[in-house]
Amino acid sequence: MSYTIKSDQIYFNHKLQPGVLAVDGASIKNVISDDASVSGELIDLTGYRVLPGLIDTHMHGGNGFDTMDCKEESIDGMCDYLASVGVTTFYPTTVTSSLERTKNAVKTVADCKDRGVKGAKIGGIFLEGPYINKKMKGAHPEEFIVDINLEHLKEVLEAARGNVRTIAIAPEKQGAIEAIEYLTKQGVTVAIGHSDATYEETQAAIKAGARACIHIYNAMRPLHHREPGILGAALTTDGFAAEMICDGIHVNPRSMEIVTRCKHPEDVILITDCMCAGGMPDGKYYLGELITIVNNGVARTEEGALAGSTLKLINGVKNAVQLVGVPFETAILYATENPARQLGILSKTGSLEKGKAADIIAIDDNYNVVFTMIDGKVIHDKR
């Protein structure tokens, strides 16, 4: 199927400008400044901002579904929900659990990816835990946190059939550096998180191949003038990406501003860390084995610890603009090009360019997603 998508606000070359997108099959055929010589069904999105599809690299679930359900229907439900809120590629994220349940979860994701899904595409798997620090466990159940063991790790990787793209590791744990070097050679991105690492331990992990920290500020020691920790290393190391939950709850907007001022724009990645209550009413839910209580959209464990979020990624972009003061054109990078670059898929998606996947969304002035196209197929249209 061929389409001509027309708008007065297409995000191209890092700015909004009038023009048209020519879509042929699953790909963008061209991006041009007028509608001459363009054929196919016209989709007129004038008045809406036309953007690359969003990429969520760290999310556990949504619309009542969770990666740790270990059910294909749950993954399908997540794909469906995410497409409706503007996410075109995502990385289903595990939470610390037993080895068997973790293997079942990643196998289920791999099965869904292999057979194909409707809605948001599965980019791969993010393994969050169990190789983390109990002191910084957050909402991860302590009884399943384990020491780093390459045989244990290889079992999970084998169950995932090559689909694990990111693993969170606490670099202060024994065996961490060896594991980081091994994973990097396997093409897996290592992210530092749920860790009490010092600045020096963090830099050692970066030297070994670690490329990012997960949800900056959260589940790590605070910045201290005599021990900067992960936070200090993340803020001062170019090329080291910082995930950020931009909901105004996990991190104060002024603290987020520090990140956006210290980091190169290419090194900031917006995530949701969304759990199954995303898109659902307040109530009792589960994050893996843990009971979570959602009140006013804020998810916490029964002990009061934050347990992921209910954030939509497009609202993270909105908050970056309205709460933090980031220019719109930069905030979009945080949720499209940057995660695509981090996970090695920028040649395929993440921006509106000739030859890339036709992963396209449109939003209104209130950041409501009104249109989603994935691989050239219209998935969601609420105009």
From TrEMBL:
Binding site for substrate: A139, N218, A219, R226, H250, L306, A307, G308
Pathway listed: Amino-sugar metabolism; N-acetylneuraminate degradation; D-fructose 6-phosphate from N-acetylneuraminate: step 4/5
Record InterPro entries: Amidohydro-rel, GlcNAc_6-P_deAcase, Metal-dep_hydrolase_composite, Metal_Hydrolase
Cofactor annotation remark: Binds 1 divalent metal cation per subunit.
Residues involved in Zn(2+) binding: E128, H194, H215
CDD domains: NagA
Domain Amidohydrolase-related: 50-378
EC assignment: 3.5.1.25
Pfam families given in the database record: Amidohydro_1 (PF01979)
Catalytic-site annotation from UniProt: D273 (proton donor/acceptor)
Gene3D superfamilies: Metal-dependent hydrolases (3.20.20.140), Urease, subunit C, domain 1 (2.30.40.10)
Cofactor: a divalent metal cation
PANTHER family per UniProt: N-ACETYLGLUCOSAMINE-6-PHOSPHATE DEACETYLASE (PTHR11113)
Protein name: N-acetylglucosamine-6-phosphate deacetylase
